């Protein structure tokens, strides 16, 4: 589950960055980070500190809470629904071929 929150936070950062038309390098310059660090954050490869999250939020001109849109969506869900949401999030980052393979595997498991 730990990797999931890192990937979801990174995806939120990437989404906000691209909405603003910024490259990783431009966001890095604004937040005083190397662009490769921004890439690692967006891919969920590093466990970013709260201080660094705040610097990124400020650089994107958003509130810190906007980096966690997924947390609101999960409130009030049952365990089963949270697991389904987790599967959906995993699939969103995959190409169509992998999604189709996952669909076939799931169909086979549920028969």
From TrEMBL:
Keyword set, alphabetical order: DNA-binding, Transcription, Transcription regulation
Pfam entry (one): HTH_3
Species of provenance: Paenibacillus auburnensis
InterPro entries documented for this protein: Cro/C1-type_HTH, Lambda_DNA-bd_dom_sf, TransReg_Diox_bact_type
The name this protein goes by in its record: HTH cro/C1-type domain-containing protein
UniProt xrefs under PROSITE patterns: HTH_CROC1
UniProt domain HTH cro/C1-type: residue ranges: 13-67
PANTHER family (alphabetical): HTH-TYPE TRANSCRIPTIONAL REGULATOR (PTHR46797), HTH-TYPE TRANSCRIPTIONAL REGULATOR SUTR (PTHR46797:SF23)
Domain of life: Bacteria
């Amino acid at each position: 589950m730990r990797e999931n929150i890192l990937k979801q936070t990174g995806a939120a950062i990437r989404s906000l960055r691209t909405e603003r038309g910024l490259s990783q390098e431009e966001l890095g310059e604004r937040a005083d980070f190397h662009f490769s660090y921004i890439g690692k954050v967006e891919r969920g490869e590093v466990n970013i500190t709260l201080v660094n999250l705040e610097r990124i939020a400020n650089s994107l001109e958003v509130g810190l809470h906007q980096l966690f849109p997924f947390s609101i969506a999960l409130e009030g869900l049952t365990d089963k629904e949270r697991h389904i949401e987790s599967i959906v999030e995993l699939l969103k980052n995959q190409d169509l071929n992998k999604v189709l393979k996952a669909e076939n595997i799931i169909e086979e498991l549920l028969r």
